[in-house]
Each structure stands twice: as structure tokens, then as C-alpha cells.
Design brief:
With about 300 residues, this protein is of the alpha+beta class. It folds into two domains: about 140 residues, predicted glycosyltransferase like domains (Thrombin, subunit H), CATH 2.40.10; about 120 residues, Beta Barrel (Thrombin, subunit H), CATH 2.40.10.220. The protein contains seven helices and 15 strands. Helix 1 packs across helix 4 and helix 4 crosses helix 6. The longest helix has 27 residues.
Length: about 300
């Protein structure tokens, strides 16, 4: 993840603290959550549990409890929920404890000893949890708000996006080939492949992005436009579109983190170019008006 300042952490907490995140398979994988190392600790012991969902104010866990322990936790004033995640681009882990109190139990299915336990945090959670959940929710918001902003694939941006190289696998009609990635966004990408332009519009395409530490992300979309590469008639640049909400969460987080860099190289949109022209024209008119006023004076 990108470096997060204390001001950004405060903004995440204020903006997202009430939003509950369900740890689906995709969410848990994208956040590199280690579910088999999560525990609920209490006075006199601890129990393994599954964190079903979490906000920055509380969480819901699934836990097996015999009757005696259930009765004990129902009267406990304080418990401690242990989170565990694997660090990005590393085999190291990060774990932390969140001080909580149990505010209710609900039986899980027909099993009499398995429960949903609703926890309420007694204090603001550790910065690590605010960063992890806040960055995820922020990526989801920006995937809609900034979906058309295209990141140019240069050396700096490849590093920020954790890309191994600018060459990635493209599959069209189940045939695989290598492609040269040119730019990327929440809602699509542009990639150069070997071939012709015959009947490409509307074709379904899969792209496998190769990331550092042996990771990869699979993207699926549709070709919306294409063009021959200048001076290379056997190469074609295809523009692929996909809906941001259908992309893996890990992909949205990577794009969002990259866009946070003030020096990130981007393809300027037509609106940005037009606004720049209007600002230049406005500035020019102001200069002319000032000159006319001086001459009139």
C-alpha cells in the first residue's frame, strides 16, 4: 500500500468508521488476511475465531463456544480480538489486538455451540486496521469517481503498481499471446498485441497481470476500440473496458494507491485539455483587458 500519513488515517476514520466490511473470499485474499491466526482473547484463555465482518467501530465474528464459556463471555467486561495480515511483498505478518466488549450472541445455523458474536471496540482501533480497511473503502469510492483516469505504464508507475514488467499475457478466443501494456485505469487498459484488426470490436478478452512475489491478477473485459501501431502493420493497440465493480479488489487498491502519487504520469482526458485551453484563453483576455485599461487611463 501507499504511504499513509496521520492526517489520511484521521480522514479514513472519520469518513469510513461506520461502514461494515464483510470479509468475503475476495476481500480476505486481497487484504492478505490470515484467518487461521485470528483469536478472541479473554481473561483466562483464548479461542480461534473467524472474523465475518468489521467496521472501525466493531466487528462480527464466528466462534465455537461450549455453554460454560458462553456464559463467561456474556458477563465479560473486556475481550481482545486479534487480527493478522501478511505484509505486502513480504512473507512477514502484521498482527494487532483490538480492545472490545461483547454486546450480543446469535446462534449460527443449527449448531448449538457455534455463534455469531457482535463486538464493539472500546477505543479507536490501531492505525494498521484503519489503514487496511480505510484504503479498501477509499479504493471502492475512487473506482467510480476516478474511473476514467489513465495511468501511463512507465518505470516509476510499474514499481508503484507492483508490476514485474510491461509485458503481460492476453487471451482472445482462448488463444494466449504476450501484450505490451501502455496505460491502465479502474475501468480499462490499453495493450499492444501481435495480430490484425479483423473483427476485434466486442470480443471478450482476459488479461493476466504479473505482479511481484509471484502474484498475478486476472482481468476480464471487452474490446471497445483498436488501432494499428504506426509503422508496425502487424501490431494492434486494443482498448479494453471492464466495469470497476467487477474487478478484483486487489486491482482497485493498486490503481488507487498509484493515483495518490502527485507525480504519477497520466494520460490527460479531453476535459482536462479543454479546461486548460479555456483557462489560457481566459488569462489571455484578462491580459488584453488590463492593457486596454492602462491605455485608456
Amino acid at each position: 500500500m501507499a504511504f499513509v500519513t496521520s492526517q489520511q488515517l484521521d480522514a479514513y476514520y472519520d469518513k469510513y468508521k461506520e461502514i461494515d466490511v464483510t470479509f468475503t473470499k475476495d476481500v480476505a485474499k486481497s487484504l492478505r488476511m490470515i484467518q487461521n491466526q485470528t483469536h478472541l482473547k479473554y481473561k483466562g484463555g483464548q479461542r480461534s475465531c473467524v472474523i465475518y465482518s468489521s467496521s472501525l467501530c466493531g466487528s462480527k465474528i464466528i466462534i465455537a463456544l461450549p455453554n460454560k464459556l458462553l456464559a463467561k463471555l456474556q458477563t465479560a467486561k473486556l475481550v481482545y480480538l486479534r487480527y493478522c495480515f501478511q505484509k505486502e511483498d513480504s512473507n512477514d505478518i502484521i498482527s494487532f489486538i483490538v480492545h472490545s466488549r461483547v454486546i450480543g450472541f446469535t446462534q449460527y445455523g443449527d449448531n448449538k455451540e457455534i455463534y455469531f458474536a457482535q463486538l464493539e471496540y472500546t477505543h479507536r482501533p490501531p492505525d494498521a486496521l484503519i489503514e487496511i480497511i480505510g484504503a479498501m473503502l477509499d479504493a471502492n469510492v475512487n473506482a467510480k469517481r476516478r474511473k476514467e483516469e489513465r495511468i501511463i505504464i512507465d518505470t516509476n508507475n510499474m514499481r508503484r503498481l507492483s508490476l514485474v514488467s510491461n509485458t503481460h499475457i492476453v487471451r482472445i478466443d482462448k488463444a494466449s499471446r504476450n501484450g505490451l501494456l501502455r496505460d491502465i485505469s479502474f475501468s480499462g487498459l490499453k495493450i499492444i498485441i501481435l495480430g490484425d484488426q479483423v473483427s476485434l470490436i466486442g470480443k471478450k478478452v482476459e488479461v493476466q497481470l504479473s505482479l511481484t512475489f509471484g502474484r498475478s491478477i486476472e482481468l476480464a473485459g471487452e474490446i471497445v476500440r483498436h488501432e494499428t501501431v504506426e509503422n508496425h502493420n502487424n501490431l494492434v493497440a486494443i482498448a479494453l473496458h471492464f466495469e470497476p465493480e467487477n474487478t478484483p479488489l486487489e486491482y482497485r487498491i493498486l490503481i488507487n494507491d498509484c493515483l495518490k502519487h502527485p507525480s504519477v504520469a497520466r494520460v490527460r482526458s479531453s476535459d482536462e485539455v479543454e479546461n486548460e485551453k479555456l483557462e489560457a484563453l481566459h488569462s489571455q483576455n484578462n491580459s488584453i483587458n488590463r492593457c486596454n485599461a492602462l491605455q485608456a487611463g
